[in-house]
Amino acid sequence: MKYKIYNYLAGVFSLVIITTSCVNDDDLIQIDPNNKAVDSFWKTDNDALLGVNAAYGSLLTDGTYMRCTPLLLDLKGDDTRSNSPWGAMANVGRFNSNPSNAEIYGWAYETYYQGIFRANQVLTNVPAINFEDGALKNRILGQAYFLRGLYLFHAVNMYKNVPVPTELAAIYPQKTEAEGWAQVIADFKMAAELLPKNYTDISGLDAGEKGRATKGAALGYLGKAYLFNKDFTNARDTFKAVIDLGVYSLVSNYRDNFTETNENNSESLFEVQFSREAGGVDLGWGGAPASGWGKTSARAITYGPRGFGFTDVQPTWALYNDYQLEKTKSNTVDPRLDATIFYNKPGGMQLYGKDFATTYASNTGDLNDLFCRKYQNSDGQRPDEFDWRSGINERLLRYADILLMYAETLNETGNTADAYTYIQMVRDRVNLPDLSIVKPNLTKEQMREQIGHERFLEFPLEGHRFDDIRRWGWLQDPVKLAWLKSRDPEFNSYAAGREFFPIPQLERDNNPGTIQNDSY
Question: DSSP code of 502?
Answer without folding.
Answer: P
